[in-house]
């Protein structure tokens, strides 16, 4: 799904962008713009009265696509439109390549071609022409000419190998091993220089190249060179990273004089006599950054046979673990980390400061949790959440983006996400043998994905009979892990959970429509599979599916990284649906354990003030529940035991997180769970990994001395500012499996299938969740109607129904969606076999709910009517605390500035107790001559506090007869049309 095909095809050839880049460098500029295409999948039959545009099509923002304009010095080209920015850029580059008539060599250049090209590149770098242009290499060239004494004009080969993109990529083409062993590149460049012995000199065992003939004087005096005589001293703030882990990383500052060469000064700091013996790593962090490691070339010898540079075995002892881990290249001996160099943009030396803080941030950014922490700007307080609930409640980088960052940081290939659509069979043959599920793949998926999925057939069909309950439990254990983690369930968890599962008999198997499943693969740069995660769960939304799978991988990697006990990660392999290749994994991450948590072991025992939460301020009664989005103000300080002044480490005025997901350290989450809005709290905890503390504060010297001189602890101050209640939907999903909304729909579907109804009207159909699900089952229905006052929802319903009806051969002969209020008469809604009204009445004022009852049973008179509404008493369970009675709520409501915290959804005007609901329904039934029975979903009728959603099923008393005062509006008595048809289906059209 990631357009792997495209990437694969490109892997072995030079991309058009690369061709343009080698020709134009920064003179080529790409401008990508988003193209919003109106969606093409219009929905015939849809008409919105009041909108006068004929042939009105749904104003839907299609998935965005991109177009790219490539501007070159002489002309510009515009790409076609693409889903991905990078594809648009490549297309633009291709158009430019075509226009320029460049024929990129097919496939890889041969070894000879690459070697020859390297020779000509080196020759060009030392030409009269090159030193005059603006290029990072020419900056170095000019600076080497200013070197003193014997060193004047000696150009370090390592600069070419590391900083000249063209030369270094040619070296990689000669031998891909250059990627991991950059010193190999030195030998290729030396070899190339030796072919130019007429003009260049590079004696054996020397790591420099010198131009034999001096540059003509007029070139050196050209304006470009004069300008580069920067009048001021440049101070570089860098870091010294000793090879010995026991020695601390320390700041190191040095000045570069206008007349000096910075390489000489770094060499001096590393006690190397000649800057040419200095090696340079690839850039660390951002690709555009000049942050690199400088270190002495290890003792080397020229292997005569291959004339390649090899590192003596003895050097292996002095590997610099921290530097190697940071760069992903083998680095030996002491190193200096500096962001200094010549760039494309200026003739002057460009410098960025590197502090110890930035060093620790670079380190923790290599761990999945660290990348998340940084993205939240809360390295001490935030933790990688255990579950992805909804995109709206997620804060910080999304799991998928963190995983991409992680792979980039570790120089792995971009992770691949393969989503597939799981078509879940309707359970119309419940008693038959379990059916295999069809797994479908989206059209653009690769062969490979198909192969993977054909082996993963899933059987979710229900088994009937007594084995059922246990079956459901098993599937809960498999799929419910994240749900369990993210809900801080009330004490009676097991009882409740069992109860809700025992009612979900039909529901679990009767999953309707199609869901997504996602498989994530982590590959090494060499395309070896390191890890695969194939979650068994499927999701309605593709994004949820991808993010959840990415998060599983991240959680697993995090355990692997930080707990250092691989067994722990391995034991969670099952629950996180992960398989991995231990050998490759070890190869890629072998240094992690020597880096992360290294300092943890040196930390002194902490004192005893730990974790007494002192809460202050009056209890406002507004407390968070699992799934609430809370907003806090907090600060964390480092407190030394000896009474010295504390040091602020981290703070935020507004920090939001979702309760119950583990998005912050557990102490904080536990503290906040006990607080109400307006209260503040203070508590002390032990010191976390020292790496995190050093990544939080920029006063390294002070923090370090505090940490080293005293036992310390962390002091947290937190104030709960605001709570956003979980959306009803989120809450229902967190507590019930299947989600309560689905259980309601399934309940209604079950009743409909038991009946012989041929016509159905869904009052307050919303986005059509019930109508849509109905189409997945064999029913006797021929005519279905939905009514709602939300046109937005109706449009969504229309689209879903339209696409479903167009695909399926169903018994439905007519389907209509009306925009209208269900408390107004409309003769077209009369005389249906079945009426449904799920979770609608609580959205109206109580009087209107009574009015609806009278209209529907008195005038529309369906043979059966199913009404569901929340059971207020059940909110105790959903809240995990005792619910205040309704009168107290009323007070609170005014206190909280009109914000209601008592109902499951902000739009609810009321929620009834069982008694209130039964009274409403019974009176109605008697009045209009119906029978009524009560039921529900979620929870159980005989365990307090009853069902989560209460349901009344009204049935017309046989024989149907007219009650005085009840007047079904029939065509005979005049047609009343108050609703507007929004969409209409009929199969012949
Ligand atoms: N029955 C749907 C939607 C429930 S949400 C489901 O179970 O998914 C409640 C719906 O009632 C909303 O779509 C809202 O627009 C609708 N509604 C509220 N008052 C209404 C009224 N007076 N007439 C028609 N629909 C109404
Ligand atoms: Mg509702």
Automatic annotation (TrEMBL):
EC category: transferase
GO biological process, one term: siRNA processing
CDD domains hit by this protein: DSRM_SF
Residue intervals of the Methyltransferase type domain: 761-847
Necessary cofactors: Mg(2+)
Region: Disordered, residue numbers: 489-508
Reaction(s) the record says it catalyses: small RNA 3'-end nucleotide + S-adenosyl-L-methionine = small RNA 3'-end 2'-O-methylnucleotide + S-adenosyl-L-homocysteine + H(+)
Gene3D superfamilies: 3.10.50.40, 3.30.160.20, Vaccinia Virus protein VP39 (3.40.50.150)
InterPro entries: DSRM_2, Hen1, HEN1_dsRBD2, Hen1_Lam_C, Methyltransf_12, PPIase_dom_sf, PPIase_FKBP_dom, SAM-dependent_MTases_sf
Sequence ranges assigned to domain HEN1 double-stranded RNA binding in this UniProt record: 368-474
Name the UniProt record assigns to this protein: Small RNA 2'-O-methyltransferase
Species per Swiss-Prot/TrEMBL record: Trapa natans (Water chestnut)
């Amino acid at each position: 799904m990631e357009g792997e095909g495209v990437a694969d095809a490109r892997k072995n050839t030079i991309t058009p962008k690369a061709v343009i880049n080698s020709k134009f460098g920064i003179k080529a500029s790409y401008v990508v713009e988003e193209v919003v295409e109106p969606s093409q999948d219009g929905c015939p039959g849809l008409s919105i009265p009041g909108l006068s545009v004929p042939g009105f099509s749904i104003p839907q923002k299609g998935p965005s696509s991109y177009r790219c304009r490539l501007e070159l010095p002489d002309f510009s080209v515009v790409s076609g439109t693409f889903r991905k920015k990078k594809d648009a850029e490549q297309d633009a580059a291709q158009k430019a390549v075509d226009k320029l008539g460049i024929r990129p060599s097919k496939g890889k250049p041969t070894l000879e071609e690459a070697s020859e090209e390297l020779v000509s590149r080196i020759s060009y770098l030392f030409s009269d022409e090159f030193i005059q242009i603006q290029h990072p290499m020419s900056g170095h060239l000019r600076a080497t000419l200013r070197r003193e004494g014997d060193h004047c004009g000696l150009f370090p080969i390592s600069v070419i190998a590391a900083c000249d993109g063209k030369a270094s990529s040619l070296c990689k083409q000669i031998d891909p091993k250059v990627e991991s062993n950059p010193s190999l590149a030195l030998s290729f460049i030396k070899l190339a220089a030796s072919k130019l012995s007429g003009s260049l000199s590079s004696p054996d065992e020397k790591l420099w190249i010198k131009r034999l003939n001096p540059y003509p004087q007029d070139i050196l005096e050209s304006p470009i060179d004069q300008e580069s005589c920067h009048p001021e001293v440049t101070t570089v703030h860098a870091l010294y990273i000793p090879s010995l882990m026991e020695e601390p990383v320390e700041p190191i500052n040095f000045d570069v004089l206008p007349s000096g060469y910075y390489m000489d000064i770094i060499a001096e700091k590393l006690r190397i006599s000649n800057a040419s013996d200095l090696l340079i790593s690839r850039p660390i962090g951002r690709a555009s950054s000049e942050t690199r490691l400088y270190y002495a070339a290890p003792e080397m010898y020229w292997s005569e046979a291959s004339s390649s540079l090899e590192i003596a075995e003895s050097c292996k002892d002095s590997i610099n673990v921290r530097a190697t881990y940071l760069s992903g290249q083998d680095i030996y001996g002491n190193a200096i980390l500096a962001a200094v160099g010549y760039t494309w943009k200026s003739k002057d030396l460009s410098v960025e400061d590197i502090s110890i803080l930035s060093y620790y941030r670079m380190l923790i950014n290599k761990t999945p949790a660290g990348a998340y922490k940084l993205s939240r700007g809360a390295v001490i307080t935030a933790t990688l959440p255990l579950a992805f609930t909804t995109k709206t409640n997620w804060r910080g980088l999304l799991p998928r983006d963190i995983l991409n960052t992680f792979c980039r940081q570790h120089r792995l290939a971009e992770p691949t996400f393969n989503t597939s659509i799981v078509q879940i069979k309707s359970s119309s043959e419940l008693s038959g043998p379990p059916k295999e599920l069809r797994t479908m793949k989206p059209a653009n998926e690769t062969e490979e994905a198909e192969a993977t999925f054909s082996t993963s057939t899933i059987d979710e069909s229900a088994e009937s009979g007594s084995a059922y309950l246990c079956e459901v439990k098993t599937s809960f254990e498999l799929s419910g892990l994240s749900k369990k983690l993210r809900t801080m369930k009330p004490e009676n968890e097991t009882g409740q959970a069992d109860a809700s599962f025992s009612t979900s008999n039909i529901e679990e198997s009767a999953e309707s429509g199609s869901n997504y499943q996602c498989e994530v693969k982590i590959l090494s740069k060499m395309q070896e599979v390191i890890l695969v995660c194939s979650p068994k769960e499927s999701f309605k939304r593709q994004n949820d599916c991808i993010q959840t799978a990415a998060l599983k991988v991240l959680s697993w990697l995090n355990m692997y990284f930080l707990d250092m006990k691989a067994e722990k990660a391995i034991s969670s392999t099952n629950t996180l649906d992960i398989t991995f290749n231990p050998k490759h994994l070890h190869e890629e991450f072998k240094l992690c354990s020597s880096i992360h948590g290294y300092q943890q072991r040196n930390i002194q025992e902490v004192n005893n003030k730990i974790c007494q939460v002192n809460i202050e301020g009056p209890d406002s009664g507004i407390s968070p529940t699992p799934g609430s989005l809370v907003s806090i103000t907090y600060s964390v300080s480092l407190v030394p035991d000896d009474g010295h002044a504390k040091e602020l480490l981290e703070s935020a005025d507004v920090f939001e997180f979702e309760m119950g997901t583990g998005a912050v350290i557990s102490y904080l989450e536990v503290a906040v769970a006990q607080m109400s809005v307006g209260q503040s709290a203070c508590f002390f905890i032990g010191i976390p990994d020292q790496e995190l503390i050093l990544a939080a504060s920029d006063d390294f010297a002070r923090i370090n001395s505090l940490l080293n001189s005293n036992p310390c602890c962390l002091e947290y101050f937190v104030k709960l500012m605001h709570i956003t209640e979980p959306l009803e939907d989120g809450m229902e999903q967190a507590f019930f499996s299947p989600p309560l909304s689905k259980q309601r729909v399934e309940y209604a579907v079950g009743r409909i299938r038991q009946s012989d109804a041929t016509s159905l009207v869904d009052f307050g159909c919303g986005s059509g969740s019930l109508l849509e699900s109905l189409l997945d089952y064999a029913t006797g229905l021929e005519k279905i109607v939905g009514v709602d006052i939300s046109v937005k929802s109706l449009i969504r319903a229309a689209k879903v129904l339209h696409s479903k009806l167009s695909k399926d051969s169903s018994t439905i002969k007519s389907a209509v969606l009306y925009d209208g209020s269900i408390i107004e008469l409309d003769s077209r809604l009369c005389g249906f076999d079945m009426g449904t009204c799920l979770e609608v009445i609580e959205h109206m004022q109580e009087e209107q709910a009574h009015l609806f009852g009278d209209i529907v049973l008195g005038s529309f008179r369906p043979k059966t009517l199913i009404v569901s509404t929340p059971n207020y008493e059940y909110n105790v369970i959903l809240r995990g605390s005792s619910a205040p009675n309704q009168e107290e709520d009323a007070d609170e409501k005014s206190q909280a500035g009109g914000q209601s915290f008592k109902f499951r959804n902000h739009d609810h005007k009321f929620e009834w107790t069982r008694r209130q609901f039964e009274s409403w329904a019974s009176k109605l039934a008697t009045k209009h001559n119906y029978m009524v029975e009560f039921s529900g979903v979620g929870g159980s009728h005989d365990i307090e506090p009853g069902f989560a959603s209460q349901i009344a099923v009204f049935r017309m008393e046989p024989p149907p007869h007219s009650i005085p005062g009840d007047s079904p509006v029939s065509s005979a008595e005049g047609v009343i049309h108050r609703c507007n048809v929004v969409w209409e289906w009929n199969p012949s059209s």
